[in-house]
Amino acid sequence: MLHLLRQVVEEVNSTRDLQASLSTVVGRIRAGMNVQVCSVFLWDAHVNRYVLMATDGLSAEAIGKVTLTQNEGLIALVGKREEPLNLSDATRHPNYHHIPGLGEEPFKSLLAVPIIHHRKVLGVMTIQRSEPGRFEDTEEAFMVTLSAQLAGVIAHAEATGALSGLNLMGGEQLDVRFAGVAGSQGVAIGNAHVLVPPSDLDSVRYRPARDINAELVLFENALAKVRSELTATRERLRSELRPEELALFNVYVGILEDRALGDSVVELINQGEWAQSALATVMRRYIDHFESIEDDYLRERAADMRDLGRRVLSHLQASVPEVAIPDHAILVGEEISPTVFGDLAAGRIAAIVCTTGSANSHVAILARALAIPTIMGVQELPWQGLQGEELVVDGYRGHVYYRLSAEKRQYFETICKEEAEREADLESLTDEASETSDGVAISLMVNTGLQTDVVRSQNKGADGVGLFRTEVPFMMRDRFPSEDEQAKIYRAQLEAFAPLPVTMRMLDVGGDKSLDYFPIVEDNPFLGWRGIRVMLDHPELFMVQIRAMLRASLGLNNLKVMLPMVTSVSEVEEALAIIHRAVLELNEEGVSVTLPEVGVMVEVPSAVYLVKEFATQIDFISVGSNDLTQYLLAVDRNNPRVANIYDSLHPAVLKALKMVVDAAHEGGIPVSLCGELAGDPLGAVTLVGLGYRNLSMSSSNLLRVKSVLRQIDSDWAHTIASGLLHLDDPKVVRSTLRLALRKAGIPLTDIGILPS
Ligand code: PEP
Ligand code: MG
Q1: E strand or H helix at 672, and its extent?
Q2: Cα torsion angle, 233, 236, 240, 246, sign
Q3: DSSP for 317-376?
Q4: Which of the following is catalytic: 38, 156, 315, 674?
Q5: Binding site membership of 648 for ligand 1 (Cβ less than 6 Å)
Q6: Could you confirm whether 362 is annotated as catalytic?
Q7: Angle, to 10 degrees, between the axis of helix 18-32 and the axis of helix 2-13?
Q8: Does an H or E element contain 387, and which?
Q9: What are the strands of the beta sheet with 329-333, ordered from one edge?
């Protein structure tokens, strides 16, 4: 059964033609489950009907022609109830709807299961037998499992199909929309530049060959290169290899010499496919075949095939010259690697679209700092086929559009224009005081990481740096920067803002912030080796970093040091010991630095309850609302599937924020907040209402926040925030805040809040 499941999922997964592959799938299920009929109906939103997409056992003529409304027959009933229907004799059910010409008459028993993806019914899958009698529980369970697996791939294949002109009902759709999570506000229109992970067979997608002969030559050359590489390696290592290892080389070379593999690829290329996807399709077939073999030894050969495939693919990819990222491109990919951070910082990128990640992934945070419209977690986007295509990114709503109609284009062009006007209006606030309408000063600081953040922040009139994410310069290198290199980077930040304070956070790697040269592979990275935990386990890294910071601050005295991911008081004590030692060491070396202010980030729930204890040891605390939200709500900030339940305005988070600010006041230490909540105008109003007077945010949000804060009264904000603490739903919190601002006469669009 597991084998059948795998085969079916693989079939749909690798499809270029959903309808064709569903025909294969129903055939496989019919044979594998020993039934007379298997059919798939999919819901078509264009015609508002279920359409028979594939059947093995009923009339083939009916495919694509038989359709049912959402109230018709047993199919509609299953779709409506969203649960399986297992009937001994379907014809006796009151909802049975006879369809002439479908050829259902001989079949009595019916099992129909809904195909549901992200709470949405995509269709219904049925199996039928002529003998009356309910299907076994195990059969029902299997079909439920199968449809759950199929749902994701059908959704993806539908989306892909829509783009390649293979959409279910035919006809070219306009304004094809893919939904993700809004990562950074703004709208951009531009051409896609696809970032493909190298040598990954699973990421290669179908593309028609521009020149079949050229693709054939490329493929033969790639094969020949791998063959000669392997032969050369074998000869070089012959004396050092064990016989079984040598045999493996022979197997590899043998596979490449055997024309079976090569011929299959050539056949696909001759049918009009480019070499990369032809190779990937054939290799996937081989891998699948080996994986399904019972024998352990042979099953392991699947890994060899994958390796071999990757080697050939890397040569094919090397033959395609790397296209430089054009100006004003929209970067599209599974994830955005630090290698393109330079292009992002240079302001050449119009927008970012990622198929993974969520609003508080670090890519999105970086994009917000640079004011680049960004959408994360567009899981269904068939990104590999988008190279060069024109896209529209709506970073307010988290939508990507493709094949834009004239009306939609005009709509988005107007938004772009209005945005530019709004930004220009906000510029006038740069030199105005950041205070509420009743004169309560709110210090607005910036979060930085890239060197270019400095200029952007100064242009916005920031009161200093509330969070310098030191991991960003670490991510842009291929090794840990030396003490001198770090000192230079830190000096540039400190000098740029002096005498304003710069809060430097000790390296916070782990979670979704990884360094290629220091990989941390864990099942549960956000609950694993992160932030201060890593640094305390590597005191040599801690020491180099703190020494670099202290040296950089010489003569400026505007350095503050912050510890990330603190869970316990003992971690603070250990970190303080290293910082004291660094000061001592440097003094002994004749560098007369003084102890900087040291603070703790409150971003782990335990820290919320330890603020008073911290207050006796350190100089300030800063709330990391991004992680605090993730850990309080148990929602991975990087996972688009649960993005809808990640909300820093959740009442539970608000209660924690209130506890922290009160405890800090009681403990007599300053408190700030440097998570993304501070840069959200609704969040900023709430925070001021809860008692926060120091907020740190992306520079791109600073003037928007200043604008709203200058229009509100602090007592009014206090009353509103106190009321929010009694609500029980984050959505109600947001609508209450919007309503309150509207009633106070503050136009929401002026502060970048579009109508929901
Ligand atoms: C936070 O967690 O809120 C924070 C500011 O840190 P980061 O987003 O870098 O984890
Ligand atoms: Mg954090």
Answers
A1: strand 671-673
A2: positive
A3: HHHSPPPPPPTTEEEEESS--GGGHHHHHTT-EEEEEESS--TTSHHHHHHHHTT--EEE
A4: 674
A5: no
A6: yes
A7: 170
A8: none
A9: 176-179, 399-402, 390-394, 187-195, 329-333, 349-354, 374-376, 181-184
E strand residue ranges, 7-119: 37-44, 49-56, 67-68, 85-87, 109-117
- Which residue type occupies 706? K
Is the distance from CB of 363 to CB of 376 less than 8 angstroms?
yes
What was the pLDDT predicted at 189?
Answer: 94
Q: Is 603 in the pocket of ligand 1 (CB under 6 A)?
A: yes
118, two tokens: 């992200």
**Spatial separation of the C-alpha atoms in residues 564 and 561, rounded to whole Å:** 10
Q: Is 22 helix (H, G, I), strand (E, B) or coil?
A: helix
Going by alpha carbons, the residue nearest to atom 8 of ligand 1 is: 626
Taking a C-beta distance cutoff of 8 angstroms, is the pair 450, 492 a contact? Answer: no
Q: Which residues contact 594 (CB under 8 A, 6 or more apart)?
A: 557, 583
**In whole numbers, what is the pLDDT of the chain averaged over residues?**
89
What's the DSSP call for residue 513?
B
**pLDDT digits 0-9 by tens, 220-263:** 999 888 888 888 877 777 766 667 667 767 777 788 777 888 88
User: Which residues are 195's β-sheet partners?
Assistant: 333
Residue 710 and residue 685 in contact, taking contact as beta carbons nearer than 8 Å? no
Which protein residues have a CB closer than 5 Å to ligand 2 (ion)? 603, 624, 627
Residue type, position 664, single letter: A
Residue in this structure with the two tokens 């510890």, named with its chain if needed: 563
**Count of CB atoms situated within 10 Å of the CB of 492:** 13
* Ligand nearest, relative to CA of residue 622: 1
The strand pairing partners of 68, in sequence order, are: 50
Reading phi first (left if > 0) and then psi (alpha if -120 to 50, else beta), residue 512 is in alpha
DSSP 8-class letter at 202: G
In the sheet with 109-117, reading across from the earlier edge strand, the strands are 67-68, 49-56, 37-44, 120-129, 109-117, 85-87
Tell me, using a 6 A CB cutoff, whether residue 469 lines ligand 1. yes
**Cβ count within 10 A of residue 34:** 9
Asked if residue 503 has its Cβ within 6 Å of ligand 1, the reply is: no
Contact 174, 245 (CB under 8 A): no
Q: Which ligand 1 atom sits closest to the C-alpha of 564? A: 6
Spacing, Cα 598 to ligand 1 middle (Å): 17
Tell me the pLDDT tens digit for each residue of 443-467: 999 999 887 788 888 888 999 999 9
Tokens (6 digits) for 507: 């390296």
Rounded to whole angstroms, what are the CA distances from 570 to 206, 373, 533? 55, 41, 11
Element (H, E) at 390: strand 390-394
Whether the predicted pLDDT of 168 surpasses 50: no
SS3 letters across 203-226: HCCCCECCCHHHHHHHHHHHHHHH
pLDDT digits (tens, 9 = 90+) for 598-648: 999 999 999 999 999 999 999 999 999 999 999 999 999 988 889 999 999
Buried b (16+ CB within 10 A) or exposed e, 506-518: bbbbbbbbbbeee
Which of 156, 193, 362, 399 is an active site residue?
362
